[in-house]
Amino acid sequence: MNAPVANMTNWAERVDMAAAFRWTARLNLHEAVANHFSLATNPEGSRFLINPNGRHFSRITASSLVEIDANDPGTMARPDAPDPTAWGLHGSLHRALPHARCVMHVHSIHATVLASLADSRLPAIDQNTAMFFGRHVVDDHYGGMAFEEEGARCAHMLADPKITTMVMGNHGVLVIGQTVAEAFNRLYYFERSAETYIRALQTGKALRVLPDAIAEKTAQEWEAYPGFAEAHLRELKAILDEERVGYAV
Fold first, then answer.
1. 11-243 in CATH: which number?
2. How is the chain split into domains, by residue range?
């Protein structure tokens, strides 16, 4: 990891965020410059890091992340103001939900296909989909782009700390976590899970859905799995470091 930029706080977390952005771009889970990740930097969760307005995920660095305050009404007048929808959605979540430390929102292909179905619930049909059993919510009332009113509505739906993932109907997916590693791991596995489900539907065959008790047991086992998310992000950073792509600057 490169040395922190002078006077730059939360350096390790910035590096984790930059790595998550870069790998999300490699997996093609992003969309143009329209998606956003954020990470709370104070105990109350109101101050947070977010990607700069209009910057492609593949070009984000640790030092380029912008730190803003969800309770500062002058944020959008700043010269480095975030994208208005980023402020509307992520600002609303960080303002209302201290437990939502890291928030990742994308329009990834398979999650968005799922969000486009009349029934956007993700059934537990394998070990990966079971990770989200009883832990995802479906927003069935898309109200337009994620400006502040829409963001506040979404925040209300995520008030239960057990809910880690929102299938944003007609829109995309949003995940929350306590750390960058936890949120990114969920984002990765939700997209994999959505792909598995969509491909299973395409066969036209009956689904092998897990019993609720087994699905819940598996979800709890995922939550208790020691160090898995951290190891995932650590290895991705190691690959980026070996390639000297310049994310941790």
1. 3.40.225.10
2. 11-243
Compute φ and ψ for 176, nearest 5 degrees. -125, 155
Which residues in the chain show pLDDT less than 50? none
What is the per-residue pLDDT across 171-224, written as a single tens digit (0 to 9) for each?
Answer: 999 999 999 999 999 999 999 999 999 999 999 999 999 999 999 999 999 999
Three-state DSSP at 230 gives: helix
Q: Look at residue 1 in the predicted model and tell me its pLDDT.
A: 57
Does residue 37 sit in helix, strand or coil? strand
Please give the model's pTM, rounded to 2 decimal places: 0.95
Task: Give the pLDDT score at 231.
Answer: 98
Strands (E), the chain: 36-40, 47-50, 66-69, 102-106, 136-139, 165-168, 172-177
Q: What dihedral do alpha carbons 208, 137, 171, 120 form, nearest 10°?
A: 30
Query: What distance in Å separates the CA atoms of residue 71 and residue 245, rounded to the nearest whole number?
Result: 35
Asked if 85 and 148 count as a contact pair (C-beta separation under 8 A), the reply is no
Q: Which of 126, 222, 142 is nearest to 177 (CA)?
A: 222
Return d(Cα 58, Cα 76) in angstroms, integer: 24
- Angstrom distance (rounded) from CA 131 to CA 133: 6
